[in-house]
């Protein structure tokens, strides 16, 4: 994260996330946030950097996407309102994993995935390959005034390139390590370097003049990690150990502080006073004293599942479950069961219509998956079973909450098994049925409680009349998601979403292609309905091939004629890569879960 100071004393906060193409920005110390409107609809961003000389100028590095565009760098001078692709040609299969800018904003250095450096000396207009590292592939670098500091990929020490912004000198090793010592982690900003040194007599070593001189390592700050943030009143250093976190707020003295979550990923001292801190899992917090924290933003995680359960909105992400009472009043969502940076993916959720407090979910936890049940609207969860495979959609029998189905897939001794598991006793025992395919979505048949429609991606749509015991193929058209609507007379319409939206009025015997008034190719991945109005979520998808298949997210589509025609209903939705939809009929809101854009709502 960056705190870009303005001449009038205010600041612009720029926050990036591994899950988003662009990021988010705030001009009121985090009270409100705006999504960065990225130059490409595809999630291929690697680095977003703001200019300290002109806070409204940003650079965004992107990776290549075969079939869409090459890797490169974009620039904006109006906070993402418009973008210009800069003139740079990188070697094949290369991209910038990191960008660093001189404080005046004219000199930029891009570090490729292979550790090479490219330099622009005119604000990004033109770029040249320059070997600033003396042939040493680097994995991290930072401007400190006119100098550049970097660490080679194969060495546990640091080097400095003096006058890198003018006439670069050959890199010189910074002499602060003793025999047997090596760098565990480091960070740099302003003119300050903080390095966690391991080995005999190690600790936290600090240089406040870009590496010319160093304080002796502080043994009481051994191990852990370090963050450095520039400040007009003195560069600040945050050291995070396993048990204690200490902050040097610019006066050279370290004091014990609290941290708001598991691990601070970045922090900014604000010109107006106080700090903004970022925890990659738990969100953004403001603090005036590092004792009390107020959450000013939830993580921009990919939202893969949404559900409304007994007065609460549940959002399943790749880091865990977020929960908020309805109506949602702010960013301080609950996280039942905790959040983890990886291995805690909520895949799907289903709420029982007869008792909305009952929710089933599927979850991937590192190397295994679980089926779990909540009877209190997502506040607590009971794991019913776990398997060392992948599981996907989950479906509750409309008349019996103890009958549940989920789709699964695994490989055992080279033999692939794909299909559904069912339980009739609330998860105490499960029966496995091999269908030869996995399913991404289920929908109940309103005319038959045991009937289930099953969407199987490129395999098409299938129907089971005995709750997964057997199956019947209905169409080979792509089916990422399935929805069944009723017109009040008992008749039903079946819709499937894929590279098109198709509907059937004869129980799946024949399908018709709906008209979609949206330019470009798309992929529909979720449906929702409310008072006869239908909604569809679209997401970006890339399939390898020759040529590859590339589609961008087109936001949310709406149909008012039961799915025959569809129009764009995205409005001011900041990201058009939508993964999940749900409706709160009581509050009359449509909620959309975005890829790296959290949850947004539309009044119905």
Identify the notable features of this structure and list them briefly.
604 residues, mainly beta, five-stranded mixed sheet, four-stranded antiparallel sheet, 0% helix, elongated
Précis, in short:
With 604 residues, the protein is mainly beta.
Structure description:
- With 604 residues, the chain is mostly beta strands.
- The protein is 0% helix and 47% strand.
- The chain contains no helices and 56 strands.
- The protein has a five-stranded mixed sheet, with no helix packed on it.
- A hairpin with a 2-residue loop joins strand 36 (404-412) and strand 37 (415-423).
- It is elongated and about 80 Å long.
- The model has no long low-confidence stretch (mean pLDDT 93).
Describe the secondary structure blueprint for this structure.
Layout: E1 2-5, E2 11-15, E3 24-26, E4 34-35, E5 45-50, E6 58-62, E7 72-76, E8 84-85, E9 96-101, E10 108-112, E11 117-120, E12 128-129, E13 138-144, E14 147-152, E15 159-161, E16 172-173, E17 182-189, E18 192-198, E19 203-207, E20 225-229, E21 236-240, E22 245-248, E23 254-257, E24 266-269, E25 275-279, E26 283-287, E27 294-297, E28 303-309, E29 312-317, E30 320-325, E31 345-351, E32 359-365, E33 368-374, E34 382-387, E35 390-396, E36 404-412, E37 415-423, E38 431-434, E39 441-445, E40 448-455, E41 461-464, E42 472-475, E43 481-486, E44 492-497, E45 501-504, E46 512-513, E47 515-517, E48 524-530, E49 533-538, E50 541-543, E51 549-551, E52 556-559, E53 565-568, E54 578-584, E55 589-594, E56 599-603
Parallel strand pairs: 47-53
Antiparallel strand pairs: 1-2, 2-3, 3-4, 5-6, 6-7, 7-8, 9-10, 10-11, 11-12, 13-14, 14-15, 15-16, 17-18, 18-19, 20-21, 21-22, 22-23, 24-25, 25-26, 26-27, 28-29, 29-30, 31-32, 32-33, 33-34, 35-36, 36-37, 37-38, 39-40, 40-41, 41-42, 43-44, 44-45, 45-46, 48-49, 49-52, 50-51, 52-53, 54-55, 55-56
